[in-house]
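Checklist before submission:
- one chain only
- standard amino acids only
- sequence pasted in full

Submission:
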Amino acid sequence: MTREELFGNYVIFVTAWVLGDRVRTGRAYTAELEARTALLERQQEDNARRAVMLERNRIARELHDIIAHSVSVMVVQAGAARRVAATDPGRTRTSLEAIESIGREALAEIRRLLGIMRSPEEDEVALAPVPGIAGLEALVENARSAGLQVEIEVKGEVRQLPPGVDLSAYRIVQEALTNALKHGGPSSACVRMIYGPDTLEIEVTDDGRGALPALSQSATVGHGLLGMRERAAAFGGALKAGPRRGGGFEVKASLPLDATR
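Returned file contents:
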C-alpha cells in the first residue's frame, strides 16, 4: 500500500472517528437536556403542589381564627340574651345587636378569603380589608361586649407594621382573647403591645381559671395554639403560651419588624 493510500485511509478513519464522536456527544447532550427538562418539570410540579398546600394551610388558619373567635363571642352573647330576655329587654337588644354585628364582620372576612380563590374570569366582589392592629380596639370591644374585661397597654413608638406581621399580630391577639372567653370563665384580661427597635412584643394575659387539662389537649385548643406559633415562626418570631404563676393564662409573642422577611 502506497504512502498516499495510507494517508487517505488515515484521513477517512480520523474523519469517521470525529463524526462518530460528535454524534455520540450530541446524543449525550440531548439526553442530558431531556433529563434536565424532566427534572425541572418535576420540580415545578412539586413547587406548585407545595404552594397549594401552603395556601390551603394559610386559609385554614384564617378560617379557624375567624370562626372560632366570632362563634365564641356570639355564643356568649346569645347566652346572656337568653338569661335576661324576660327581665331586661334593653340588654337583650344590645346582645342581639352585638351578635348581628359580629356575624356580619365574620361573613365579610370569610367572603374575603373565598374571594381570593375566585378565578380571574369571575366577577369581582367587594372584599373586606385584611385585618390588622388598626382594628385592635374593635376586636377588644367585641370581647368586652361578651363579658371579658379587657385593657390595652401600648408601649414604645407605634409605627406601621409590615402587612404580614400586622395580620399575624392581630390574629394572635384574637386567638388569645378567644381562648380567654372560652376557657377563662368570668375574668379580666390585658393586651400589651410593646414596640421595640426591631421587634413587636405581644402579651395577652388573663386571670381566669385557664383551660382545663382535658380541654387543653383538645383538637380545637391545640390547633389554635399551633396556629399562633406558626404565625409567629413564619416571620422568624417565637410564641410561648401556658398557665400563669398564681392563676390565669398568658400568651407571649415576639415578631421581628423586618419587612423583608
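Reviewer check: The beta strands are 149-156, 188-195, 199-206, 238-243, 249-256.
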